[in-house]
Design goal:
- By secondary structure, the protein is mostly helical.
- It has a single domain, classed as Growth Hormone, Chain: A (Up-down Bundle).
- It is built from 23 helices and no strands.
- α18 runs antiparallel to α19 and α18 runs antiparallel to α23.
- The chain is globular, with a radius of gyration of 22 Å.
- It starts with 23 loop residues before the first helix and ends in a 15-residue tail after the last helix.
- The N terminus is likely disordered.
């Protein structure tokens, strides 16, 4: 979709010599390992935002208020992500994909490591650290912002690394490898939380155990850097350089020639983002929050007052048990991400995504009935939602880059991806908690919100073109 007509970009120029290429295993490993590390970092925070940070950084007598504060900071990264997409997109289109991807990994990794060293506003026993009630949350906000900057530039670079090195007619398949970083990172981060919950007491976990996943990110970053430094630049960017089509201001160029692609790409991913953060961040909170009956019984045992009229109950699962159920669902996320690539190649990106988005619309209304069916229904809801997530998320690694010409592809796809994150995910956790509270403990309105997001995505897909046959080898500039 170069130019504002939403048609795919083409060019008849052919380079004088064949650009150097990375080996398939290098491409797959670098795109997969890098995004796995990035998403591990991101999800470690998401899990802590639900399980730990409300008590340690935002202590309050009202658990809903603490949750809202924690998720508000979670949303700070989504404000930073479009900024990161502009900054790293500029360098990705000016100096190349390889060097920029090293930078995104360092920014994300260092910020995550430092979160593990932060002082807290409250202690595990609930006592308040008077000198840290402002400083601790402020430092958390700053580092969360840095996390968002790194991830804002990471995804697009990893997607381009995979698809710009892909053989003909296999871009959607190669594009699923960076997408696999999402389920792999989630499983790594949350499995570690489960292990810590099994091996540490609650006091140990709340005092220092929660820091371990953040500190371990340093090891993962070193591995990711080693893999990425071995790469050569992608053939598409080498071609841009060889033909002297590198632009001085990618941001200006992409909005001048591909503004319509940015708008459509943004809304094509909205339902994907809403679904994912509903299935992870919200469901972890909803699933592990005690029911009204459980909360009343706990209050009675401790002799504290309990007002059932203001309490918003959840499913009442122990946190570790629900994390394990969620991890089972994420396995299906990974499997269906792999399946989505061949499907997008066979049927085309547009047809496949329209079909999956219709299923997401239906799922939004089916969610509450499924959750009412007991343990089996809850696990089924997690599996179905995550399977749909894999089918809609997998093709995006190819779809969004295909909307833009090579010399502004990093910037364009990054902006569309991250603007979608602001609209679809930045406010989603907070909105989910508010809708859950509004529904007196029922997630019905959360499901309605998901279905509404699916409608927006269907409209964007209707106005988008099929990009399956877009030829990267004949493209270097707008």
């Amino acid at each position: 979709m170069s130019q504002d007509t939403a048609t795919t970009p083409t060019s008849s120029a052919v380079p004088a010599e064949q650009p150097a290429k990375n080996k398939p295993w290098q491409v797959i490993t670098a795109s997969l390992v890098g995004t796995s590390i990035e998403f591990y970092d991101f999800y470690v925070y998401a899990t802590a935002a639900s399980l730990v940070f409300p008590a340690l950084f935002f202590p309050s007598d009202d658990h809903v208020t603490a949750l809202l504060a924690s998720f508000a900071v979670f949303g700070v990264a989504f404000i930073a992500r479009p900024i990161g997409s502009i900054v790293f997109g500029h360098f990705g289109d000016r100096i190349g994909r390889k060097g920029t991807l090293v930078g995104t990994l360092l920014v994300m990794g260092i910020a995550t490591f430092l979160i593990g060293l932060l002082p807290t506003a409250a202690n595990a026993d609930g006592s308040i650290n008077a000198n840290m009630t402002v400083l601790a949350p402020t430092l958390l906000v700053i580092l969360r912002f840095c996390q968002g900057l790194g991830l804002g530039g990471e995804w697009s670079g990893a997607a381009l690394l995979a698809t710009e090195n892909a053989p003909a007619n296999k871009r959607a398949i190669y594009g699923t490898f960076p997408q696999l970083g999402a389920p792999i990172g989630f499983i790594l981060g949350n499995t570690l939380f489960v292990i810590l919950n099994f091996t540490l007491t609650n006091d140990q976990f709340m005092t220092w155990g929660w820091r371990i996943p953040f500190l371990l990110s340093a090891v993962l970053v070193i591995v990711g850097l080693w893999v990425r430094i071995q790469l050569t630049e992608t053939p598409a960017f080498q071609k841009v350089q060889a033909e002297d089509h590198v632009v001085k201001a990618p941001l200006v160029e992409v909005f001048r020639h591909s503004w319509r692609a940015i708008v459509l790409g943004t809304f094509v991913m909205v339902a994907t983002y809403v679904l994912f953060y509903m299935m992870t961040s919200f469901m972890l909170t909803y699933g592990s929050t005690p029911t009204t009956e459980q909360a009343a019984a706990t209050a009675a045992e401790s002799g504290t007052a309990f007002d059932a009229s203001t309490y918003v109950g959840g499913l009442g699962y122990p946190k570790t048990e629900f994390l394990l159920m969620l991890i089972v669902g994420v396995v299906f996320f990974g499997l269906f991400t792999l399946i989505s690539g061949p499907l997008a190649e066979r049927f085309g990106r547009k047809k496949m995504l329209i079909s999956v988005t219709i299923l997401i619309f239906i799922f939004g209304f089916a969610m509450t009935p499924l959750l009412s069916l007991g343990h089996t229904g809850v696990q089924a809801q997690l599996i179905i939602g995550m399977a749909l997530m894999g089918l809609t998320f997998g093709p995006m690694g190819a779809v969004l880059p295909e909307y833009f010409p090579a010399n502004t592809r990093y910037t364009g796809s990054a902006i569309a991806y991250n603007m979608s994150s602001v609209i679809g995910a930045g406010i989603a956790p907070t909105v989910f908690v508010a809708l859950w509270s509004f529904g007196d403990g029922s997630p019905f309105w959360v499901g309605v919100y998901l279905s509404g997001a699916a409608v927006l995505t269907l409209i964007a897909l209707f106005f988008s073109n099929e990009t399956k046959h877009y030829d990267y080898s004949n493209d270097s500039a707008a």
